[in-house]
Amino acid sequence: MAKCDVCNKGKHFGIQVSHSHRRNNKAWMPNVKRVKIAVNGAEKKMNVCTRCLRSNKVQKAI
User: Is domain 1-62 annotated with CATH 2.30.170.40?
Assistant: First the structure.
């Protein structure tokens, strides 16, 4: 599973509890995309989560 190269967000583990209180181990995955971004005037492919893309922490290359 890929991590975000900007904020280092990765997989989170926990216990999912249903309405009847049955408990299951669960892994929550971040929404990570492989995009071309502009780094110092050059294009580079990086794994970036959609929250970093939405908050303009990186600029997508055109």
Answer: yes
**30 vs 11: CA distance, rounded Å:** 6
The tens place of each residue's pLDDT in the chain, 62 residues long, gives 789 999 999 999 999 999 999 999 999 999 999 999 988 889 999 999 999 999 999 988 87
Domain spans in the chain, listed from the N-terminal domain onward: 1-62
pTM: 0.75
Joined together, the tokens standing for residue 7 give 């904020």
* Structural tokens at position 41: 């005037």
Task: In whole angstroms, give the CA distance from residue 43 to residue 51.
Answer: 20
- Please, is 35 exposed, middle or buried when counting C-beta atoms within 10 Å of its C-beta (0-12, 13-18, 19+)? middle
Eight-class DSSP state of 21:
-
